[in-house]
Design a protein that fits this description.
This protein is α+β, with helices and mostly antiparallel strands. The protein is about 30% helix and about 25% strand. It has helices at about 15-30, 35-50, 140-155; strands at about 60, 70, 75-80, 85-90, 95-100, 115-120, 130-135. The strands form 2 sheets. It has a 4-stranded antiparallel sheet with strand order 1-2-3-4, with helices on one face. The two termini are about 15 Å apart.
């Protein structure tokens, strides 16, 4: 991590201050989800402690499940409050697929218009599969925005 000392001799570094701000932003977002008190406490105490000193570059949260995907320098961390699970997947084992069914119907006949999938090559019960599925045209720009962020992150040197 590249860090610079702040003027004024506070001793704190700019990089660590930004990292703390991104962690706090993530914790604030999950605090506003409709989670049980136990799940909320798990995020605020356990996950926060496990991520101490780790730098979150960006994050996504699934409001319906409370699951979160944290993008770090060399991989992603999947947090699942339902099972109190935290899993890390290295960047080099991740793939990104985009399927656009707006020109032709989804082969599954489920009304799906657009799907973005970030997934891992891992043992079967430990695979990452983070999806954005759109059945409404107005949801596609948000999925495309996530695709762009994921693509930039995957292609960082």
């Amino acid at each position: 991590m590249l860090a610079f000392k702040k003027a004024g001799g506070s001793g704190a570094t700019v990089a660590s201050t930004e990292a703390v701000a991104r962690l706090q932003s993530f914790l604030d977002e999950v605090a506003h989800l409709e989670l049980s008190d136990t799940q909320r406490e798990w995020y605020q105490v356990e996950v926060a402690a496990m991520l101490d000193g780790s730098e979150i570059l960006m994050h996504e949260v699934q409001p319906l499940t409370g699951a979160a995907l944290l993008f770090m320098n060399n991989g992603v961390v999947l947090a699942e409050p339902c099972c109190r699970g935290l899993r890390q997947y290295p960047r080099h084992l991740l793939h990104l697929f985009v399927e656009d069914f707006r020109g032709a119907p989804s082969p599954d006949g489920d009304g799906l218009l657009y799907r973005v999938e970030l997934f891992s090559i891992s043992p079967a019960d430990e695979q990452l599969c983070w999806l954005h599925e759109c059945r409404e045209e107005h949801d596609i720009p948000a999925a495309q925005s996530s695709t762009a962020r994921w693509m930039r992150w995957l292609n960082q040197a």
